[in-house]
Every structure is written in C-alpha cells, then in structure tokens.
C-alpha cells in the first residue's frame, strides 16, 4: 500500500498557553493539524491507523522549550512546504523554529 | 494570574482550542455558557457546541464557555483569591450579561449552584440584580425555580434570533425578562404562582403578558437550522473524543418509558446531501480522526445505508473512524452488514430493555431477539470484540421470571456468539412526559429485592460484565426529575451540606439528601407515587401535545 515513507525533522517551540498541554496532547494536536493540510500523510499500519509522528524527547508539563519532531510522508516533500502548510494549522504557542539547522 | 501548573490537568482551564472564538471584551452582549460537569464531559456535549457557534454568529455577541472546576481548582477559588472565570477571556462569571447553563442531568444541580457561588453570582434569583441565569436542556424546571431567572424549554436554534433581539432592545434585567416571557419556550418562574390544593397543582400568571401554557419550541427544518461548521476541537482528550454529525432529531419509535421521544418530538431527519457536506466541512476544519453519526436511533434514518455508502470512501482514505451509536439489530443482520464489515466497528450497543418477550412488548420496545442472536454471531466475525446490552427493571408488571431471564439471556447470548458482553441494568424511572409518567416508581424494598434476584442469576464468567444501577442514586434522580418548586429548598440545603458531583458514585451521599429532605419536611415518596394527569410540569406543552390540540 504505502510502504515507502519519507521522514522530515522539524524543531517546534512550545510556549505560552501550550505549555500546559502534555506530550500526549501534542501528538493529537499535531496529527489533527496535519489532517487539516493537504500533505501526503503516512499512517501507521495497525488496526487503528494513526498519523505517524515521533519525538526525540518530551517536555515536562508546564515548561516551555524545543521539541524535535519527526514527520512521515508517503511522498518526498520539502521542509519549506511542510512549514508553510503546517504553521497556519498550529495553535498559538506552538511555533515551527525558523532557519533551523537541518538535522 | 493563576499558576495553572499547580492544578491537576490544567488543560481544563486554558481554552485556546482549535476554532475557539475569542472576541475579547469589547462585545456589547456577553454570554457565558456552561455545562456543569468537568471539562472532559462538558466538552463532549453536542448542545454546548451548537449554541456556542450559534451565538457567536451574532456580531455584537460574545459567547464564552465555563465548566465545573475539579476539586483542587474549586478549593483555590473558594479561598477567595479569584472568581470562577470563562475559558476564552478568563472573565469572572458575574461580569457576564447572561449565564446559560445546561441542566439536562438532575445530579448536576448541586454543581450548578457551586458554579454560581464560585463565579460570584448570588444563588437565589431574587437576590440578583444584573446577571440573568438561564437554564436549558431541562424537562421539568420546577425544582430549580428559585435559582434560575429564565428557562428556555425546547431547541434553542429556533429561538436564538428573538432572544438576541430582546437582549439588544432592552438594557435592564427586568425589561429583558418581561419581554422574553412573552415568547414561546421562555419561562420566567417568578411570573407564575403555583399552588397545590386538593392534590392538584394550579398554575396562575402573576404577569399578564407571560405565556401559559409554556410551549416547547422545536426546530422546524433541521436541514436549515444552525450547525457548527468550524468544529470546536479540544487539544486534550475528552470523553467522547469525536466530531459529531447529528443525522436526525427525535425518534420514530414509541417506547413507553422514553422521555426523549416526547421531548424531541417530532422525528426529523437531516438529508443525505447536508450530512455528507457537513462531514467533509467538519473534517477540513477540525482534522478529527473519529466521527460519530448521532441520532436517537441511527438505523431509522431513511437514508442510513446511503449515508454510510457515500461517506465510506472519504472515511477510508482519510483513515477516519466512524461510530454509529444507535443501530437497530435487524439492520445489522440485513442491509448494513456489508458496510459494517468495512468500518471495523469494535463494539455494538443494543437496548434490549427486557429479556422476556411479553414484558418487552408491554414496554412497546420492538426488537427481534432471534435476529439479535444472529447478529451477535455476525459481528463476532466482523472482529467486534464486545457487545453492550441495556436492560431495565422496576416495572410493576414484572414477574420473578422476567428478572431471572436477564441472566439466562446473557448466558445464552454469550454461549451462542462467543462475544464478550457488557450489560448495563438500570431502574425504570417514570420520567416527565414519557408515556408512563403517571406510573409509580417502585418502593425501594421491592427494587432491592428485585436487584438481588437479578444478580443471583447472572452467570459468573469472565466475559460477562454487568453494571447494575445504584438504587439510591436512581431514587434521587427520579425524585428531582419529578419534583415541584418546594424542592428548591432541599437542593439548597443539600448543597450547603456539601453535596457536589452527585452523579459520581464516590461523591454521592444519600445521607445528605435524606437529611435535607427531612429537615424541609418533605416525604420524597410523594413525588414517586402514581398520579393521574396533573404534575408539577403540567404547565408545559410538548410539540406532540400542541400539534394534536391544533388539529
């Protein structure tokens, strides 16, 4: 079906009211934000397919800071495209870090 | 500023959800709506979402939300450092023009009083100068008559224009109440005198222009009535975490015990085209991974197979889960079988109500039990893991065999299908406006005995789980739902004794309520006994009543 997957890494910055949302909440927030875009999403293959997202580490509830996030797609897309499509779908307090060093 | 880090699940108090509407503080008319339970439950309520989006449509109106704070936040607030505030602009509740509360569940009534107190609003309507406390979603408003300035009885979409019109035209609370009382569906308790003489409730107007009887308002055209398009999507998990598409309102069936059927009369369907358009639109604005098609009986929708057919590809390609909470069993066996196979449902709920045919027929509940057994086997093959079954007891015409039959029924169904079963066994409450509103609720001794009989016949097996109604909780729910104005004082007393979150078993205290009733000199059996045709709610007319009287 959709065996090939393309990974893109982005740094997100959590601040303001978003610091009160947990890492688990963040998965839902990002998955729903991605679903609102027209990006070629890669879904997990289980019984209940989900939008695949992974994090390098989490932030404690109530702290602001950087969360490194990996996104998965079924086609190759550019960092720029991901940024321009995703940022408008993110709530206030969740920013894609600009001019980030590509990791 | 509150340091939200100090509270459990601070997400409850933040707001800022996707599609939340924040109009700042400049709006001319400020309304705060409330569901008196914690965020995760209140945010699952469809009515709150409809009214929130409906009221914010008016340019001069700002509608915000508040829910019942959990104990830690409530304690912080009652220490006096802050008043309970709205999610959107963190405004104290007493600064709003109107506080609209969903009062659909009797065991939330003490929460409602707590919300007023924490929000700095006097509990009794007669002590309030500015804020209009408005109640909705309620069937019998009488037990709250002392605390609520204005009730709206019916479906608010149909009355919103008139309501906002009055609030814009008049500035003071008194002028506003006087004008609203002249409109259908609006009930201002203080404009009526209720007396109880010769075992009969008498209703009289104290204000000549007020309506009597009060006619419940219903939406005439469900396809053109307001429905949210920009779906309010929480950032944290809630109890029913899905986008809800209402496909019909009301129910075409005639079960004798059912209140919803009478209150949401007549049965109305949303058309296939509106439904599919809503599904696409709401997905685009929310990104919700789960959808639910809502109605009291989804499979009675005349286009249900077409609805599933036409949205199937969309759901499949977007990996959206679908739940159809109220399927009729003959549909599972018949026309919806192949579609359900594709949707990977994980559970199925069936309200059987009574295990024996004659009793079930007397309830006017129509289910083909043979088909239910066939369906159980089919859904087992669909990968469904369990089936939920609802039963009811506490009918005077019930025999011991009817009670023991529940266990036997579960046993047979479990053996023949291999499905795990979750049975929920509730007590019959003669709810206002149901066909059996004039029936008595059985004595506790009898109910307790019946409960024991049922339990003794339930097979002890790992894959049969039952939850049996908590007797005193059902009694309290029945009493409050059927009570008259006098009962306001009991609710007040129970609240001052610490009653709160009464719907939660760990908080429920029968002793508080029993003491409060005794101290107010009220024998609660009075509200539970059979009456002929005169009730505390007899001044209200549901749509089926005024439709038949007009014809």
Q: What would a concise description of this structure say?
A:
With 103 residues, chain A is α+β, with helices and mostly antiparallel strands.
If you had to describe this structure to a student in words, what would you say it looks like?
The complex is a heterodimer of chains A (103) and B (551). Chain A has two helices and four strands. By secondary structure, chain A is an alpha+beta fold. In chain A, strands 2-3-1-4 form a four-stranded antiparallel β-sheet, covered by helices on one side. Chain B has 551 residues and is of the alpha/beta class. Chain B contains 20 helices and 19 strands. In chain B, strands 2-1-3-4-5-6 form a six-stranded mixed β-sheet. The mean pLDDT of chain B is 93.
Contiguous low-pLDDT stretches of chain A (5 residues minimum) are none
- Coarse morphology of chain A: globular
Seen as an oligomer or otherwise, the chain set is heterodimer
Helix vs. strand class of chain A: alpha+beta
Summarize model confidence as the mean pLDDT of chain B.
93
Largest sheet of chain B: 6 strands, mixed
What topology, given as strand order, has the largest sheet of chain B?
2-1-3-4-5-6
The strand order across the widest sheet of chain A is 2-3-1-4
Helices and strands of chain A, in order, run as EHEEHE
The total count of helices of chain B amounts to: 20
- Which geometry of chain B do the CA atoms define? globular
Distance between the termini of chain A: 28 Å
Structural class of chain B: alpha/beta
* DSSP summary, beta strand count of chain B: 19
**Beta-strand proportion of chain A:** 15-25%
Chains forming the largest contact: A-B, 27 and 24 residues
Helix content class of chain B? 25-40%
Give structural attributes:
A: 103 residues; alpha+beta; four-stranded antiparallel β-sheet; 2 helices; globular; B: 551 residues; alpha/beta; 35% helix
């Amino acid at each position: 079906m959709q065996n090939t997957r393309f990974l893109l890494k982005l740094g997100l910055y959590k601040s303001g009211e978003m610091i009160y949302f947990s890492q688990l909440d963040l998965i839902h927030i990002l998955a729903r934000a991605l679903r609102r875009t027209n990006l070629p999403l890669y879904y997990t293959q289980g019984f209940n397919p989900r939008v695949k997202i992974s994090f390098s580490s989490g932030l404690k509830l109530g702290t602001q800071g950087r969360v490194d996030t990996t996104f998965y797609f079924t086609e190759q897309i550019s960092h720029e495209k991901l940024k321009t499509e995703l940022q408008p779908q993110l709530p206030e307090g969740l920013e894609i870090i600009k001019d980030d060093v590509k990791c | 500023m509150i340091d939200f880090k100090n509270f459990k699940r601070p997400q409850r108090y933040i707001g800022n959800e996707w599609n939340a509407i924040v109009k700042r503080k400049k709006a001319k008319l400020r309304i705060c709506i409330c569901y008196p339970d914690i965020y995760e439950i209140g945010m699952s309520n469809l009515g709150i979402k409809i009214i929130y989006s409906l009221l914010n449509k008016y340019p001069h109106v700002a509608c915000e939300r508040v829910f019942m704070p959990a104990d830690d936040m409530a304690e912080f607030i009652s220490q006096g450092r802050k008043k309970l505030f709205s999610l959107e602009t963190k405004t104290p509740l007493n600064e709003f023009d109107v506080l609209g509360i969903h009062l659909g569940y009797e065991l939330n009534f003490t929460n409602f009083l707590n919300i007023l107190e924490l929000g700095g609003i006097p509990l009794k309507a007669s002590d309030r100068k500015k804020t209009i406390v408005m109640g909705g979603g309620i069937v019998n408003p009488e037990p709250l008559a002392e605390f609520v300035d204005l009730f709206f009885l019916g479906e608010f979409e149909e009355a919103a224009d008139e309501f906002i019109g009055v609030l814009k035209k008049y500035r003071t609370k008194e002028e506003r109440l006087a004008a609203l009382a002249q409109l259908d569906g609006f009930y201002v308790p203080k404009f009526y005198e209720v007396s109880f003489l010769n075992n009969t409730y008498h209703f009289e107007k104290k204000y000549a222009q007020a309506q009597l009887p009060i006619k419940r308002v219903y939406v005439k055209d469900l396809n053109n009535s307001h429905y949210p398009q920009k779906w309010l999507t929480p950032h944290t998990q809630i109890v029913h975490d899905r986008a809800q598409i209402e496909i019909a309102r009301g129910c075409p069936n005639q079960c004798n015990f059912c209140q919803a059927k009478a209150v949401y009369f007549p049965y109305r369907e949303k058309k296939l085209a509106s439904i599919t358009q809503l599904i696409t639109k709401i997905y685009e604005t929310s990104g919700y991974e789960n959808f639910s098609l809502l109605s009291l009986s989804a499979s009675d929708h005349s286009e249900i197979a077409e609805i599933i057919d036409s949205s199937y590809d969309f759901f499949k390609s977007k990996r959206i889960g679908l739940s159809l909470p109220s399927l009729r069993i003959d549909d599972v066996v018949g026309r919806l079988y192949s579609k359900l196979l594709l949707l990977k449902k994980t559970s199925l709920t069936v309200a059987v109500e009574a295990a024996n045919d004659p009793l079930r027929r007397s309830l006017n509940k129509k289910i083909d039990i043979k088909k239910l057994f066939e369906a159980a086997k089919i859904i087992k093959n669909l990968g469904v893991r369990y089936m939920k079954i609802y039963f009811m007891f506490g009918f005077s015409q019930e025999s011991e065999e009817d009670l023991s039959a529940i266990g036997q029924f579960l046993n047979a169904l479990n053996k023949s299908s291999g499905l795990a079963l979750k049975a929920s066994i509730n007590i019959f409450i003669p709810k206002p406006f149901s066909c059996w509103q004039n029936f008595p609720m059985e004595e506790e001794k009898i109910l307790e005995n019946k409960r024991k009989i049922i339990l003794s016949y339930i097979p002890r097996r790992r894959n049969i789980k039952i939850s049996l109604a908590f007797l005193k909780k059902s009694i309290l729910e029945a009493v409050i739902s059927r009570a008259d104005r006098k009962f306001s004082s009991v609710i007040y007393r129970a609240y001052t004794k610490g009653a709160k979150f009464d719907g939660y078993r760990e908080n429920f205290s029968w002793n508080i309520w029993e003491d409060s009733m005794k101290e107010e000199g009220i024998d609660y059996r009075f509200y539970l006994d059979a009456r002929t045709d005169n009730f505390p709610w007899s001044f209200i007319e549901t749509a089926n009543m005024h439709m038949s009287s007009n014809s």
